[in-house]
Amino acid sequence: MKALPIRCSILSAVMLACFAMVAQADEAVPKITGHVFNTDNKIASGADVYLYVGDVQTGEAMVGHTDTQGDFSFEVKPSKVQRPFVYVAGPNHTAGWCYLNKLEGNTVQLQPATDLAIRFTDHSGLSASRTRIRIDQINVSTDAQELFTPPLRDDAPFTGVTNDRGEIVFRNLPVSHKIWLDTDDERFDPLKNERGEITLESDAITKGRTIQLVQNKRPAASRSVQGVTLNPKGEPVGSAKLWIVPMVAWKPPIKATSSKDGTFQFDIDPSIEVEIWAQSDEYSNGERLLWRYRRSGMIKVPLDKFEPVPITGHLSASTGKPLAGIQVKLLQGIGGSFIERLTATTDEKGNFQIDNAPPNVALQLSVNVPGFAGQTIRIKPLRTGQTAKLSNIILKQFDRTIAGKVIAEDGRPMVDAKINAQGKLSGTIVTETDETGSFRIPALAGDRIKLTVHLNEEYYIEQTATAGDQNVILDARAKQN
User: Fold this and answer.
1) Element (DSSP H or E) covering residue 252
2) Integer Cα distance of 216 and 162 in angstroms
């Protein structure tokens, strides 16, 4: 009888362990939920919700929307929940951001928002074009000095790239708050607080001053880097296609292919962080790999079993005639831009199918056919097991033209001038003037086309024309800065 308490203790311990295992197995995935109110305390349905969890530098950014009741809900991994931060872009130029103090039942109050328009120049006063600018810190509360640092990644709406004139616009930012700007472009030193601090002042648009960036020292010479692609067992994966994307907008992606033993090599500026994606017929890295140059050691790119998602669609002219033999390009969002991943060709009925599209990434479908206005279709990230069945893609045939001349500052015709034409209906078309300075651009009836000619980094000509105009004059003597 003396042994009974020991047996009972052992039995109790076993039962408790089993109960704990069952409880852990049945534990639901944590959810972060909340409700969004508009400025008039009414339900804010259809608002875009950006949720940041985990480490602030590499933390996961999740994107969702409020439902008809103004509610949002995200499922998150328990290990990644630290102090969640939420940004909401609401309707009618409203926005809100705050830290969440609990997992469920949070409330976000929207307030008037502003668009921040700002221009950057280099040390000589020329436009700092194609420069990546990000919001480095946010003053979360107007009454307290509590700051949020967005992750160092391309998560809208806190990162952008300047246009050819060095301009950038950050949209829907709550007024009366302060933000600090920064750049990771190796051509320039990071912004200092005294130059990068902006107060969001109005409820329409905050026109920031022109900020002059300090030229960086001469960048280091390129270094040769080696790596290897590995499957979940740690075995080399050969013939894997790699995309090495510099985390600066002005450097193009680098493409490489692993050899039979899984090794690959590329040259890179050691001061630039890169994003690495890899895919073979069987494997792919489902999450991006961020890497910065080290003097020794190989890059190990871990790959998981590749479970592709199919994309299907149909292509036809506005007359209803199927468009056969047309190449359709699938682009993947990598490093703030979209690069070509896969292609397909329409059959005699105008149908196409892409069988091995990557899951869980931003995708775009691009179609460009001579004589027709091109189209770019955004595809939301697809989960494994889903199929993207696109509706009938209809291409409209050009039925108008815009013709004119480009005149140089000396009054003579400008030969071989590059013209960028952009219309809401006609898409984007790039053409050049002939030996007489003349140009002709196809367009769709009723469209308004913005015509731009860049004379140099500082000056450009810009004019808007209507489809059908035949005597458009772009005069360099009326150039803009």
Assistant:
1) none
2) 18
Segments making up each domain of the chain, as ranges: 31-109, 112-212, 223-305, 309-395, 400-478
- Which residues share a beta bridge with 36? 108
Q: Judge if 31-109 and 400-478 fold alike in CATH terms.
A: yes
Structure-block tokens of residue 325: 């033999």
Q: Rounded distance, CA 448 to CA 1, Å?
A: 96
Report pTM: 0.50
Residue 432: how many CB atoms within 10 A of its CB? 12
Q: What is the pLDDT along the chain (481 residues), one digit of tens a residue?
A: 444 444 444 444 444 444 444 444 445 668 889 999 988 888 898 888 988 876 544 556 788 899 999 999 988 876 566 778 889 988 878 888 888 888 889 999 998 888 888 888 877 677 787 788 888 888 887 666 678 877 766 666 788 888 877 888 888 888 888 888 888 776 777 775 556 778 887 655 666 567 878 776 555 567 888 999 999 999 999 999 898 887 665 577 888 999 999 999 998 877 677 888 888 888 887 666 777 766 556 889 999 887 888 999 999 999 999 999 999 999 887 656 678 888 999 999 999 999 888 887 888 999 989 899 988 898 888 887 888 898 889 999 999 999 999 998 888 898 888 898 988 888 888 899 999 999 999 999 999 999 998 876 567 788 999 999 999 999 888 766 6
Query: Which class is 31-109 in CATH?
Result: mainly beta
- Which CATH architecture is the domain 400-478 placed in? Sandwich (2.60)
Q: Which CATH number fits domain 309-395: 2.60.40.10, 1.20.1250.20, 2.60.40.1120, 1.10.260.40?
A: 2.60.40.1120
What does the block give as tokens for 98?
Answer: 């705050």
Distance CA 357, CA 330 (A): 8
Q: Which of 119, 117, 135 is nearest to 205 (CA)?
A: 117
CATH of 112-212, one of 3.40.630.30, 2.60.40.1120, 2.60.120.10, 2.60.40.10: 2.60.40.1120
Q: How far is CA 423 from CA 20, 124, 165, 369, 448, in A?
A: 62, 33, 19, 16, 6
Instruction: Say which CATH superfamily domain 223-305 falls into.
Output: Carboxypeptidase-like, regulatory domain (2.60.40.1120)
Residue with tokens 């469920």: 104
